[in-house]
Specification:
The complex is a heterodimer of chains A (158) and B (307). Chain A folds into 2 domains: 85 residues, Alpha-Beta Plaits, CATH 3.30.70; 49 residues, Aspartate carbamoyltransferase regulatory subunit, C-terminal domain (SH3 type barrels). Chain A has 5 helices and 9 strands; from the N terminus they run H-H-E-H-E-E-H-E-E-E-E-E-E-H. Chain A is elongated. Chain B has 2 domains: 137 residues, 3-Layer(aba) Sandwich (Rossmann fold), CATH 3.40.50; 154 residues, Aspartate/ornithine carbamoyltransferase (Rossmann fold), CATH 3.40.50. In chain B, the strands form 2 sheets. In chain B, strands 7-6-5-8-9 form a 5-stranded parallel β-sheet. In chain B, helix 1 packs across helix 11. The chains are: A alpha+beta (158), B alpha/beta (307). At the A-B interface, loops of A face helix 5 of B. Bound molecules: zinc ion. The site of zinc ion has 8 residues of chain A, from loops. Chain A: Pfam families: PyrI, PyrI_C.
């Protein structure tokens, strides 16, 4: 690992080290989830993205880190993050300063982001946003009541 | 008794109190005169929308509607009407709700009834949405148990046959889990066992899983038999191995308590011998008949007094 990367992590003041001026920092991601998250958020790669994978973290041992220039996450994107990277943080950067820090939590309900695994579900047969309730690491379709485990839920996001 | 539901979509929406309220009203329906009953929903109109045919369920609902003095409009096979023209369910419901006070519907797509209830201003009653829910079947099962044994608490019931794919037995087991001290014997071949995710939810009942029906017959109040369908098996040989294992004949139940009763959602194929029909154990035709008072009770609870 390069010294430059280690310095990012040791440094408490993220603001000064931030390589982006306006955008989003997704931090403390579980190691090796970064690539999945970039794919899942369907980032167009029109905006500059920096990703660090498996870097040292004081709190977690190892972590991933993503900087996205010129992008703020919407509600659905935050819900997606919650399903895959609970306990991480997402920070909004404006004018090179972190203006808000937010914890990524497992959503209790999601709208329009999980694809129901039941081919006979109405959400797979008509134009209709899915709704899921999440509890005990399982998601339940509001319509057909099919239950999906986290692994299948995350797969359906990609 | 407080009644909180606006629609009848899934048995999972019911609290024990809601269930008791339906059973109480169904019992009352049985004792009302034809004359009195026919005034309950006088001048109301109820739509009966069968996007997939199901003659038994439709006849039962439409009889209940007419017994309460309401008129029925609708169709018996939606495949030839709106659906074929590619109309969405929400459009169909938004149109029909203007004509009627309530909608009974059956649909092959799972979650269709829940969707309809989001769109509709008038109450929706789910008469079956694919393999998902058929709440009025579960309620009539519970009503039949209560009527026969006076109480659902403490009942010992064997669910027999296809427990893997049978939505009727899934819903009944989950409903019994809302009552006290019930004991459920799951009797099925290895290939058709009750799914693990349902077993995990049965935290409030005692459960026993077995492949041997005869050894548990003396222990139960009810045998609830279901059909084992050929198409569930990978090949004919596998099917033939188990198809006769759970056929119930007078000999199967020779050691049963005299109060033991046999239930079945009907139609049956060969899993219940016709020799049982005249015996005191046969409860299945009475069970089917109970579909009427239960559906009348639901219609009354949802529609009575509403403008
Ligand atoms: Zn679904």
């Amino acid at each position: 690992m390069s010294n430059a990367m280690k310095e990012y992590d040791k440094e408490k003041d993220v603001v000064r080290l931030n390589p982006i001026s306006n955008g989003t920092v997704i931090d403390h991601l579980p190691p090796a989830t970064g690539p999945t998250i970039i794919r899942m958020l369907k980032l167009s790669c029109k905006e500059p993205i920096m990703m660090a994978v498996n870097i040292d973290s004081k709190k977690k041992g190892k972590k991933d880190l993503i900087f996205i220039e010129g992008k703020e996450l919407n509600e659905k994107e935050v819900q997606k993050l919650g399903l895959i990277a609970q306990g991480s943080t997402w920070n909004i950067v404006k004018g090179k300063r972190v203006v808000s820090k937010n914890k990524i939590e497992m959503p209790k309900e999601t709208t329009g982001i999980i694809v129901c695994s039941n081919p006979k579900c109405i959400t797979n047969n008509e134009t209709l946003e899915t709704k899921f309730t999440i509890a005990n690491n399982m998601g339940k379709c509001h319509y057909c009541e099919r239950e999906m485990n986290m692994k299948d839920i995350i797969k359906s996001l990609e | 008794m407080k009644w909180n539901l606006k629609d009848i979509i899934s048995i999972n929406d019911f609290s024990r109190e809601d269930i008791e309220c339906v059973l109480f009203n169904a019992k009352k329906m049985k004792s009302l005169s034809r004359e009195k009953k026919s005034k309950i929903l006088k001048n109301k109109v109820v739509a009966s929308l069968f996007f997939e045919p199901s003659t038994r369920t439709r006849l039962s609902f439409e009889t209940a509607i007419q017994n309460l003095g309401a008129r029925v409009v609708g169709f018996a096979d939606g495949g030839v009407s709106s659906q074929k023209k590619g109309e969405t369910l929400s459009d169909s419901i938004s149109t029909v709700e203007n004509y009627v006070d309530g909608i009974v519907m059956r649909h092959p797509i799972e979650g269709a009834a829940r969707r309809a209830s989001e769109v509709s201003l008038v109450p929706i009653i789910n008469g079956g949405d694919g393999a998902n829910q058929h709440p009025t079947q579960t309620l009539l099962d519970l009503f039949t148990i209560k009527e026969e044994f006076n109480s659902i608490d403490g009942i010992k019931i064997a669910l027999v046959g296809d427990l893997k794919y049978g939505r009727t037995v899934h819903s009944l087991a989950l409903a019994l889990n809302k009552f006290k001290k019930c004991k459920i014997f799951f009797v099925a071949p290895e290939q058709l066992k009750m799914p693990q995710e349902i077993m995990e939810k049965l935290t409030n009942v005692k459960v026993v899983e077995t492949e041997n029906l005869e050894e548990i017959v003396p222990k139960v109040d009810i045998i609830y038999s279901t059909r084992i369908q050929k198409e569930r098996f990978p090949d004919e040989i596998e099917y033939n191995k188990v198809k006769d294992a759970y056929v119930i004949t007078p000999n199967t139940i020779k050691d049963a308590k005299s109060s033991m009763r046999i239930m079945h959602p009907l139609p049956r194929v060969n899993e219940l011998s016709q020799e049982l029909d005249g015996t005191k154990h046969a409860l299945y035709f009475k069970q089917a008949g109970n579909g009427i008072p239960v559906r009348e009770a639901l219609l009354k609870l949802l529609l009575e007094g509403k403008k």
